[in-house]
Amino acid sequence: MRTNQYMGLLPYMAVFVKVVELGSFSAAAEKLGSTASSVSRQIASLENALGVKLLERTTRRLRLTEAGTVAWERCFEMMQSAQSVLELAGRISDTPQGRVRISAPRAYGKDLISPHVAEFLQRYPQVDLQLMLTDRMVDLISDDVDLAIRITDTPPPGLVARPLFPVRHVLCASAEYLQQYGIPQHPQDLTQHSCIYLGEVPGDNQWKFRHITNGEQISVAVHGRYASNHSKARLEGIIHHLGIGCLPRFSAQQVMDNRQIIQVLPEWDYMTSYYGMSWILYHPNRYLPPKCRVLIDFLLEKLKHQTAHLQSH
């Protein structure tokens, strides 16, 4: 194939990558500001030029063929190389500059990242920051983010994962509530209490525990008159004596320090999907832009102090 021929196919290869990332012609078209029919024609033109079938189309989804898988890997590498070229100016300059898009779980981002944003922007005046707070699983490519924070004991393969902060949960109640209804001595005692749980999906009221010392595990079905999927709302409910609630320790620590609420069952770990080490994730790249590098270093610095504070309690 002559140079002018494959040069003309480069835009189609980029569209192909986006279709595979998003899983449909319509989703890719929306992201690219095009139409599904136009995207379909470009994929067909690429297939015709290569002489192979890249995608199997069904009524419900698209699936890569064997040749399509190989082609996608090469096209994806091409897109990464193009991105590196676009970021070349920022990498050559030692001055961090440009916009960084970082995603984080809602409570984590609100309590652990947002309080430090002003200092970061003051320290790096040529860097802009976009903080996206969401509890869904974010994909760096399809969601177009530079960095993502995820809470898991097993970070995903294929990405660089730097440990940030161990996320643990505590059960708390107000002193007034405990004076009136008693202090639970075992997770099973929670069945006799009003408990504040998430209420997002069926089974959120099934609380799982692991004993810190002997590893015993137990699951308890709790009940209560109030449920909320936001930690700040559950904290307000606890402060106002509505029951025993579960909170990330980083959300509860200051209020516990002030004795507004009291931890219960401290010898038991409350287990949830929002539990484990938090990691900052990014694509392997020997030319990591300075704007990303300084944000990573900044968060490691700030959360190191936060970890030390929690471990002292």
Can you tell me about this structure?
With 313 residues, the protein is an alpha+beta fold. The chain has helices at residues 3-22, 25-32, 36-50, 66-86, 88-92, 106-113, 117-123, 175-181, 231-239, 249-257, 290-311; strands at residues 55-57, 62-64, 98-104, 127-133, 147-151, 160-167, 169-173, 195-196, 206-211, 217-221, 244-248, 262-264, 268-271, 276-282. The strands form four sheets. A five-stranded mixed sheet has the order 4-3-5-14-6. It has a four-stranded mixed sheet with strand order 8-11-7-12. Strands 10-9-13 form a three-stranded antiparallel sheet, with no helix packed on it. A hairpin with a 4-residue loop joins strand 1 and strand 2 (62-64). It is elongated.
Keywords:
313 residues; alpha+beta; five-stranded mixed β-sheet; four-stranded mixed β-sheet
In short:
By secondary structure, this protein is an alpha+beta fold. It is built from eleven helices and 14 strands.
| Strands, total number | 14
Low-confidence stretches at least 5 residues in length (pLDDT < 50)? none
Overall 3D geometry? elongated
Helix-strand string: HHHEEHHEHHEEEEHEEEHEHEEEH
Protein name: LysR family transcriptional regulator
Organism: Enterobacter agglomerans
